[in-house]
From TrEMBL:
UniProt-recorded name of the protein: C4-dicarboxylate ABC transporter substrate-binding protein
Length: 73
């Protein structure tokens, strides 16, 4: 896990300037949101969760918050 965290930190260290150079606005805010979501899901997903539990978690945390009647319009 330490190696993964180091890799991700190194990868994201210059990401904002690279993304802004490619025309992405508010790149650092998007990176911060990405990091927050990773932290959130690392807390939610636990070792030994069944596929059914993961599916229920996905439904609760993602799909239940989307208005499917207007999504994409």
């Amino acid at each position: 896990i330490d190696a993964r965290d180091t890799f991700n930190a190194d990868r994201l260290a210059n990401a904002a300037s690279i993304l802004e150079g490619r025309g992405v606005s508010d790149a650092q805010a998007k990176i911060d949101r990405y990091k927050a979501l990773i932290d959130k899901w690392e807390e939610l997903v636990t070792p030994g969760m069944t596929p059914e539990e993961l599916g229920a978690l996905r439904t609760e945390e993602i799909w239940s918050k989307i208005d499917l009647t207007s999504y994409g319009s």
